[in-house]
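Two quick folds needed for the group meeting slides. Do the first one here.
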Amino acid sequence: MEDATRGPSIFEALVPIIFLIFFLWLNVLLFRDATLDGSNQVILIFSAALAAIIAQFYGVKWSSLQAGILKNINSAMPSILILLLIGALSGTWMVSGIVPAMIYYGLKILNPTILLFASCIICALVSLATGSSWTTVATVGIALMGIGKALGVSEGMIAGAIISGAYFGDKMSPLSDTTNLAPAMAGTDLFTHIRYMTLTTFPSIIITLIIFVFMGFGIGKKNIGVDVNEITTAIESTFYISPLLFIVPAVVIFLIVKKAPAIPALLAGIALAAIFAIFFQQDILRTIAGDEGGLAASIYKATLQSIYGDVSVVTNNEIVDELLSTSGMYGMLGTIWLILSAMIFGGVMDGAGMLQKITASIIKLASSTGSLVSSTALTCIFFNTTASDQYLAIVVPGKMFQKIYKDRGLAPQNLSRTLEDSGTVTSVLVPWNTCGATQSRVLLVDTLTYLPYCFFNIISPIMTIIFAYAGIKIAKLTKSSKEIVADEA
């Protein structure tokens, strides 16, 4: 905003936000589950246009706004590439029998009473091991979603359990990018950050699991009206089912644990799944290809189709048919459109100085430790909503609040914990955020449908605010031997 003759007023900065919120609400009212088909994308672009028009009145040049847009889009490119690969992964893992095998064995072990609790635990462990909520949701999450649907459990409930567990693991894993980013922005070290997060994170996940246990009892008493044996028989008669198929997800998890970058690890998972499909599921590939040409031509055509396009496996069971369908990379294009539209809006708001104005106004309200932590949490949520990117929701508030925390004698782990408790976990609750858009598309559940059941993601920011106002375990700065160290008060 170097070329501006004056900065925006708080009213000018809020107008595009109010416009966006009103019309997104109207879209939900009119379009319901179809809001992500295009209506929300259009409103995001119109909101960006409104912000750009307002910015002209106080002297911001288009070049600054365009620079903000390009910067935002550039920051989202890794997420977009991963999103495309997740689409390919879901397709190849379906035709190779990996996801059907997960559903098959899961139905043999799980039941509606323990499904939500078990799903949260399983996803927490996988995400803790891999450091990636996205990979967890795109692999075991898809399988658990299928199991939940097969057992007649509400899709919002099962998605909420999956996401709660996945984001717990992502938040606490030393392998997670956000878990490394937050302490870097706050000025503390990784393991101090993780240890300090346990104080708020463990109570949040324990409350979440207790809720899922009680919800499970309620589900278990209902007549689900689904014959599990029919479903497992339909899967077994269609696919080659064997524990050998789990070699592929084991390799992907191993690569991520060994700190391989996400994109090469996902590519390895896609390639291995395609090879397994060729060896173990030739009949499926021939069916997908329509039995046109020879075996080699059918395998080639069906394998590529599973990577880029719609694939449906037809069995003698309607429930199974619904479970065994994917859209590959093509199915992710609508989500990518949404992310790009959100990045345009966030880029204009940033380039126009509107985000900075709003957050500066929030900081002025922070007088006590409790209000400071609350302001930090709200700022993280604000950036998740407006900038539409999880990393920006950590980086920008981290830079903004670092000096304030230090000036008030608060150790940096207070800031890093708040960034994670609020920035990391709430990103998935915003439909147009990169995380919310991605998980909604991967699980095929609308964000607003699973949001009420993402108990861990909702409780975490509340927990960190409660700790701050109650003065529980607030680390203070002291000077000792000319070095600043943290002592827990």
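Then this one, please, same format:
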Amino acid sequence: MSVPPAPPLVLASTSPQRRAILEQLGLPFDVVTPRYEERDPPGADPVGLVREHARGKARSVASDAGDRPVVGVDTAVVLEGEIFGKPGDAGDAERMLERLSGKTHVVVSGLCLVTPGWEELLHDGTRVSFRTLTPRDLAAYVASRDWDGRAGAYAIQGLGAALVERIEGDYLNVVGLPAAALVRLLAERFPGVYGFG
């Protein structure tokens, strides 16, 4: 007797990094652009914010998903309680990287899985330590434009890997999706369906 194929997840994100992670995990999925507007009030709690955004993204496309599980994700780079978003320009990127230089920050992600019957919301954090960056390091990385569109002004899966001294936690969370948390959730909620649990 053949096992029916797993229903594709619905990814409420247009992020190429998140798509690549789901492909790496061997998960079937479709992409739907979330109809959700992120608002980041000053002084907001980073964990509360990424959870709220993940839930908002997932819920915004749930009506299009039928019975399929919807995955919403939001990620923030946090240093000493301050959220580092995407830099507006090269000067902004350089300022962010100068602040991160020689310090340990946390990449925190919210993950929301929504079905017609239930909703799971959780978060995960990965500690990332930057080496001390010289003016030459900063100039070379900023000139590469690898920072463009990246929270915290770096991409660990790109040239930004050279800025990092060590990480503690889920590497794929830093790339853009808390994969360990997602696998754990799928194993608990859909044992065997997606190949886990």
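Slide caption for protein two: The first strand starts at residue 9 and ends at 11.
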